Automatic annotation (TrEMBL):
GO terms for molecular function: alanine-glyoxylate transaminase activity; L-serine-pyruvate transaminase activity. Coiled coil: none annotated. It comes from Parahaliea aestuarii. Keywords: Aminotransferase, Pyridoxal phosphate, Transferase. This is Alanine--glyoxylate aminotransferase family protein.
Length: 392
C-alpha cells in the first residue's frame, strides 16, 4: 500500500525552482475558496497590482497564466501571431530555440538571429535582420537566458523593435525580481515570466503583461487564437478589472495564494533592494569560486547574478560532483544544457535561495567534493574570499 510522500529538505541552487520560504508554503495551506468567490476576486485584483509593481508597468492586461512559464511564452506568441507573419527570433541559448518552435507552430516564419552560447544577443545582428526583412512584425528574445547565465540588453532590443514598428516579445522567466526589469520604461510589448525563479514561489504559474500596442494587435486579429485556453480575450473575461467575472477556467486558487504572498514579500523588500541582494551574493559567490581556482563561463558585464555559469575543471566528473552535492549535502546545482552539457555547472542564487548561508554552504560543499576528486583547487581560500565581500 502506497503511503504519503515526504520530500527531504533540499537547498535549491540550480536553475529553478528556487527555495520556497515558509511564508509562501504556509499560504498554500490556507482554506481553498471558490474561484468566483468575491473574496478571491478581490485577491485577484491585488495579485494584478503586485505583478504590475514587479514588472514596473501600468499595463491593464497583466495577469498570472494558470500554467508554467512555457505557457506564458505560448500565450504571448499565439495571441500576437497569425499565419504568414514574419518574426525575428534571437537565439543565444535553449530558450531562443523554444521561441522559434512557437513561431512555426503559429504558421509564421522565424528569421533567426543566432549568437554563440555564453554571449548576449547582438543588437547589430538584430538590426541587420530588420533591414533584410522589413515586413517583420515581431522581435522575440530572451532577457535572461537560463541555459547560459547571460543577460541581453532588453532596453536596446525593445527600442529596436519600436523603431521598426514591430512588437517585442520578451522572456523574463529568470529575470523578474532578480535584476532590473522595466516593462514600461523599455517599451516592452509582451512579457512573460515564471513564479519558481526569483519570485521563490511554487512552480506552475506564469505572470504575463501586454502593452496597449499588443492589446490593439490582439483585438484586431482576423484569425481566432489557436489556443482556446490561452486566448487573452477570453481570459480577460475572468481576470478583467470589473466585479463581474465570466467563468473561463478553475484557477489554481491555493497556488495563487502562494504567488500573492511571494509578491507581498517582494514589495516589502523593495525591487531595488532585491536586485541589490542578488548582485551582492553573486559577487561573493564569484569571489569564492575564483579564489578556489574555478572560472566563470560568462564575461562579467553579461553575467546574471541569479544564474551563475561555472566552467567545470578538466578531469572532473560533472555528474559525480552534482550527485555528491545532492546526496551528501542535500544541495542541488544544475548541469549545463545543449552545447554546454558537461562543460559548465549552473548555480542559482534566485529569490529566497539568494542568501549568505547558501553561498557559504555551496562553497564549502563544492570544495569538499572537488578535493576528494583530486581537482587542482586552492583549498581553504573560497570562504574567506566570499566572506570579505559579504562583510564589505
Amino acid at each position: 500500500m502506497t503511503g504519503s510522500f515526504y520530500p527531504p529538505q533540499r537547498t535549491l541552487m540550480g536553475p529553478g525552482p528556487s527555495d520556497v520560504p515558509a511564508r509562501v508554503l504556509g499560504a498554500l495551506a490556507r482554506p481553498t475558496l471558490g474561484h468566483l468567490d468575491p473574496l478571491f476576486v478581490g485577491l485577484m485584483d491585488e495579485i494584478k497590482g503586485l505583478l504590475q509593481y514587479a514588472f514596473k508597468t501600468r499595463n491593464e492586461l497583466t495577469l498570472p497564466v494558470s500554467a508554467p512559464g512555457s505557457a506564458g511564452m505560448e500565450a504571448c506568441f499565439v495571441n500576437l501571431l497569425a499565419p504568414g507573419d514574419t518574426v525575428i527570433v534571437c537565439a543565444n541559448g535553449v530558450f531562443g530555440g523554444r521561441m522559434k518552435e512557437n513561431v512555426e507552430r503559429c504558421g509564421a516564419t522565424a528569421i533567426m538571429v543566432e549568437d554563440e552560447w555564453g554571449q548576449p544577443v547582438s543588437i547589430d545582428k538584430a538590426r541587420a535582420a530588420f533591414a533584410e526583412h522589413p515586413q517583420a512584425s515581431v522581435l522575440a528574445f530572451v532577457h535572461a537566458e537560463t541555459s547560459t547565465g547571460v543577460r541581453s540588453d532588453a532596453a536596446a532590443l525593445c527600442a529596436l523593435a519600436r523603431e521598426h514598428n514591430a512588437l517585442s516579445i520578451v522572456d523574463t522567466v529568470t529575470s523578474l525580481g532578480g535584476i532590473e526589469l522595466d516593462v514600461d520604461g523599455w517599451g516592452a510589448d509582451a512579457v512573460y515570466s515564471g513564479t519558481q525563479k526569483c519570485l521563490s514561489c511554487v512552480p506552475g504559474i506564469s505572470p504575463v503583461t501586454f502593452s496597449p500596442r499588443a492589446v490593439e494587435r490582439i483585438q484586431s486579429r482576423e484569425h481566432k487564437v489557436q489556443s482556446w485556453f490561452l486566448d487573452m480575450q477570453l481570459v480577460m473575461g475572468y481576470w478583467g478589472g470589473n466585479s463581474k467575472r465570466a467563468y473561463h477556467h478553475t484557477a489554481p486558487v491555493n497556488a495563487l495564494y502562494a504567488l500573492h504572498e511571494s509578491l507581498v514579500m517582494l514589495q516589502d523588500e523593495g525591487l531595488e533592494a532585491a536586485w541589490a541582494r542578488h548582485a551582492r551574493h553573486h559577487a561573493a559567490l564569484v569571489a569564492g569560486l575564483e579564489a578556489m581556482g574555478l572560472s566563470m563561463a560568462v564575461a562579467a558585464e553579461y553575467r546574471l547574478p541569479q544564474l551563475n555559469a561555472v566552467n567545470i575543471p578538466a578531469g572532473v566528473d560533472d555528474a559525480a560532483v552534482r550527485s555528491a552535492l545532492l546526496n551528501e549535502f542535500d544541495l542541488e546545482i544544475g548541469a549545463g544544457l545543449g552545447a554546454l552539457a558537461g562543460k559548465t555547472w549552473r548555480i542559482g542564487l534566485m529569490g529566497h535561495s539568494s542568501r549568505e548561508r547558501n553561498v557559504l554552504t555551496l562553497l564549502a560543499a563544492l570544495e569538499s567534493v572537488l578535493g576528494r576528486q583530486g581537482a587542482a583547487i586552492n583549498s581553504g581560500a573560497a570562504l574567506p574570499a566570499a566572506q570579505a565581500i559579504l562583510a564589505g
